[in-house]
Amino acid sequence: MGKRIYLVFFVLLCVSAWILALSLQVRADESGDIKALKAQVRELMQRIDQLEKNKKEAPPSNLNVYWNDGFRIEYKDPKTDNEYKFRFRTGIQPRYTYVFTDDTVAKNTENYSNFNFRRIRFFVDGSAPNKDWEYFVHVQLEPQSAVNLHDATIQWQKYKFARVQLGRMKIPYSIEFWQSGFMQNGADRTIFTGDSEVTKDQFGQTTYNFPSNNAPLNVSNQLLANGFPAGGMELFRSQGINVNGYVDMLGQKDFLAYWLGVYNGRDTRGFTNTDSNMLYVARIGINFLPGSDPRGPMGPSGFNHYFMQGDYGYNTKPLAALVLASFTNRDRVNNYFDTKLDTSNNNAGTKKTGIHDVENYGFDSALLFRYLGFSTDLEAGWEEFKQDPGDSKGLEQTWDRWAARANVGYFIVPKKWEAVFKAAYFERINSNNLEKSLRSGLGLVELSDGYAVEDNLQQYIFGVNYYIHGFNQYVSADVRWMRRNFNEISMSEAKRLGFTYPISHNPSDEDDVGVRVQYQYFF
Length: 523
Known about the structure:
14% of the residues lie in helices and 49% in strands. The protein is mainly beta. The model has no long low-confidence stretch (mean pLDDT 87).
């Protein structure tokens, strides 16, 4: 019995020893796996730390591509530290127009309905090789589906108070034309600088719905064969150079802005200067109320009110500027007009060949005001045109022109709904008569009962604008009343000049009414 107990005890002892050995083996194996796992975790954490360190030490990318009011590319050369900036923008203005024309004027365009593009433009600007050198290229595609280079400039701008710009550009003169066509608080500018829409009549001839069938109110191509500007009170574009800048004075930033320029001439392109004379222009802006922008009255690039209409920026402090400009120009031309009526040439005098000089000079003044969504632009201009000054060819004539405009806007809902009223008055020839109309090339007006002389042009616009995405995307609708007053041709003057055509007695005014709806897409 005792032996059997010892045997059982021995067996149990062996089994316990075996179980203990197995347990120790399993624990040893588990301890090895844990050590291996911990080693792998430590290695992973070290790799993560190294990656984060490498990321912090890696140099930033030298190329940046993004969209901000245009598609932009920016690059910094790590070897030279030169910075290159490029921006591309597209502007499109589809428009619908309906004009009720006055049949008082003979051969006037019939009531006119049309879908067209007022503007289709490409813009490229930026700086290279650094911010001291800025470039700008502006290409026009409308209205005849042809490519036209409007602007191409380079500007050295190291110093804000003295920048140098050269190339083809807008001549810094009248403010209305200087304000961008894509920053108008309405469908277009007024007749102060030109608001005539080009179309075709039933015979395929170019016509203008205002002021109908005689000398058109062009913006570009406004010079007649004798050099007389029959278009608006603006100089359009030319090739040249100017010095411009903003000057801090009297404790105010950008208190003074100025432009001093020399150009080929008025409304020129390419090799169009025919002599050694040039066009000289000077403009100064006095920003006597700074507005609410802490950087100065000229504002950030998006709210420079020399370039835009309305108070979209919603100044909480009054902003006001007085802008004064003048120009002088002398050219040599090959033609003049006599006093014999040519009905095939806008009812002007007969064109003759005779090389002579012409002189043109003028003045412009504008007052800009912006406050709490309310905006007012008041502008007036005067010009004098001298044919053959000095009477070297016996062709000496002098004609004066003057015009004024007002642009009033108010944001009923800030940055969304704006009501606008615009008015303009224009005398293309002051104290016009039969001889001035014929010799200047402006021409007579053929009415249903005979000929008359243009006295003045008037325009009144009531409109509303809805801003979807600022000036990048907005809709404009307006109603225009366009009036042209006429003078009766003096019988004594007609007899003196041998004018034998029928004369309209007590000529009625021409009244055209137009409706426009325009959508602007500018990105």
